[in-house]
Design goal:
eight-stranded mixed β-sheet; 4Fe-4S; Glucose Oxidase, domain 1; single chain; metal ion binding; alpha/beta
């Protein structure tokens, strides 16, 4: 009962804090909904442009407001495995819409970049800001005012948060998110990680490394580890934006196609032209956001969502904070172990019972708000199911399995892996930071060691190769925040620090950059706020200072006197090389206006 009361209390304080901004938001979307769709307010010239490419029958239908028109916003490209399956979705959606007596048009496309491709490359410095670009691109597509509802095709890291920000900006319209699903299992993630470490140590060559990576990332669909992409899919389902059971069905299967057609028909059923009008801006409220955070903790999800959830909530006028996220972690047990928090991949999670089992366990324990609205209707309980292919080619559902198929991967509530979710806020004289502890062994959660101050991933790599890091230390990598260089993910650090930790050294990372869902076995205080470029104390640390990271108590400190820390100046570095190349010059305005990590790192303000 204690955890249930905690979650109710946290939800209530979010509601009270958000009331002024939420009221303004709801008033705005009510006003937009009252203007109707909206084709009736378009001039004849406007409307003719909007349906010029349609078939004659569709033009006649769209000339009034009798037939629902569904806008498709797609993140399709065929370079990225997670988004390649979306190539065929528009035609499938149009077919399903026609069967349901509606029409569907591709409203627009949005960019989709992969942090796995850009990792350690200049392009990574565009990654975080791509979320806001995606939101703006989706808004442009929907701005034609031609649509009664929208479906959003996106999977990976910044794409889904950007799409949801856009959907909430058009909160007077219903919105359904349609996933593509994970690729089938390839080389186990732990074996891939071993090859990466051997490569870092010079024990295998690039050919062996590429072979291992290619066997792991081998086909269409989302990467199978539990990073931000799969955390996105979990969030969309537990927040009621997917149809039940849709998240983790593999691409190219009959069930995947059936779920896509069903989602289309559901989107058409919940427009203002029917009897089940479900505008997304009213549907997503404080309870939905809390359910998403609880799901993130219960599954050991991506640290990126300590940024994205704040930005997504803000788009609906909801004021979520890091402290809310941390307190919800304390109230939520860890029920899933998926790599990097375990050896299994997301397909094993699905086979063990998946989202239906997880939602049922959390609902029965009183840790989710059951009385929410979803795209499927009233209440979250209908999501405690398993989706299957029906004999007629449609979707059938049955209750989630009573027992987990593998308790090493997906535990029942009574056998939780740990009592808290594993995401925690650290505070101290270095400001605030986030740490993910679900994959960090308890004996490694408190580190006190001399700092080695570095200004880039490459600097740490060079020091490692020179043999300068075979000792206990805390790597302090600064000038990696939103305003310095776009806050890139720093995965190249993971392998090196993992090697040193395996050699018996006590190591940790402190950075104002990101580490994403792949934050693993090395204790990492990330998203340090304020960042170095904003005169943050992280920029005042000197090599040799003793840094103490205590994930148990939730503290992050440099052990120098307050007076000395105040007297020190941040030693600024030359960031000019981060300002151009790979399109970075086009993003200067984003770097200038980006909010702090604990405020969503958004260019839109809060």
């Amino acid at each position: 009962m204690g955890a249930r009361k905690d979650i109710e209390a946290i939800t209530e304080r979010i509601r009270e804090r958000s009331k002024p901004s939420r009221d303004i938001y709801l008033e705005r979307i009510e006003g937009a909904a009252g203007k109707t769709v909206h084709r009736s307010v378009l001039s004849c010239g406007n409307l003719a442009h909007g349906f010029a490419a349609c078939a004659p029958g569709e033009k006649e239908a769209l000339s009034g407001d009798r037939v629902p028109n569904l806008g498709i916003v797609t993140a399709y490209n065929d370079m990225l495995s997670a988004h390649q399956p979306f190539e065929t979705y528009p035609q499938l959606i149009k077919q399903a819409a026609h069967e349901a007596g509606g029409i569907a048009q591709v409203a627009g496309g949005v960019p989709a970049m992969c942090d796995g491709v850009t990792q350690g490359q200049p392009g990574m410095e565009l990654s975080l800001f791509s979320r806001d670009v995606i939101a703006m691109a989706a808004a442009i597509g929907l701005s034609h005012n031609m649509f009664d509802a929208a479906v959003f095709l996106g999977v990976c890291d910044k794409i889904v948060p950007g799409l949801l920000i856009a959907a909430l900006s058009f909160g007077h319209l219903p919105a359904v998110f349609i996933p593509a699903g994970p690729m089938t299992s390839g080389l186990p993630n732990d074996e891939k990680a071993k090859v990466r470490q051997l490569f870092a140590e010079g024990k295998v060559g690039r050919a062996e490394l590429l072979e291992a990576e290619s066997k792991s990332y081998h086909g269409p669909g989302t990467c199978t580890f539990y990073g931000t992409a799969n955390s996105n899919q979990m969030l969309m389902e537990i927040m009621g934006l997917h149809t039940p059971g849709a998240s983790f069905v593999n691409p190219g299967t009959k069930l995947r196609d059936a779920l896509t057609k069903e989602a289309t028909k559901r989107a058409l059923a919940i427009t203002a032209l029917g009897n089940a009008f479900t505008p997304v801006g009213r549907m997503i409220d404080e309870r939905s956001i809390v359910n998403g955070v609880v799901g993130l903790h219960a599954t050991g999800g991506s640290t990126n969502h300590t940024i994205h959830l704040i930005a997504m909530a803000a788009a609906a006028g909801i004021r979520l904070t890091w402290q809310d996220i941390s307190d919800l972690s304390d109230a939520t047990p860890l029920l899933a172990r998926v790599y990097p928090n375990g050896l299994a991949d997301v397909n094993h999670f699905q086979a063990a019972g998946g989202m239906g089992f997880l939602i049922r366990e959390l609902l029965d324990a009183g840790l989710l708000h059951e009385d929410v609205q979803t795209v499927w209707g009233e209440g979250l309980r209908p999501y405690a199911v398993e989706a299957k292919l029906a004999k007629d080619g449609g979707v059938s559902r049955e209750p989630a399995p009573a027992a987990s198929g593998d308790e090493e991967v997906l535990a029942p509530f009574a056998k939780a892996f740990q009592p808290s979710g594993g995401l925690k806020v650290l505070s101290g004289n270095l400001g605030h930071a986030i740490i993910k502890t679900s994959a960090v062994k308890p004996e490694r959660r408190v580190i006190e060691a001399p700092a080695v101050v570095l200004d880039s991933q490459q600097a740490l790599n060079d020091a490692f190769k020179a043999g300068e890091l075979d000792r206990d230390f805390v790597a302090v990598v600064r000038f990696q925040g939103p305003r310095a260089n776009g806050m890139p993910e720093l995965h190249r650090l993971t392998t090196i620090l993992g090697v040193l930790q395996d050699r018996g050294h006590k190591v940790a990372l402190v950075t104002d950059g990101r580490m994403s869902g792949a934050s693993g076995k090395v204790p990492a205080a990330i998203h340090v706020t304020p960042e170095a470029l904003e005169n943050g104390p992280i920029g005042k640390i000197r090599t040799g200072d003793i840094v103490r990271l205590d994930a148990e108590k939730g503290t992050l400190e440099v052990l120098v006197s307050e007076a000395e820390l105040q007297e020190r100046k941040v030693l600024l570095i030359d960031l000019s090389e981060n300002e151009y190349g790979c399109g970075r010059e086009l993003f200067a305005v984003f770097r200038q206006v980006a909010g702090r990590a604990d405020q969503g790192a958004s260019a839109f303000g809060n």
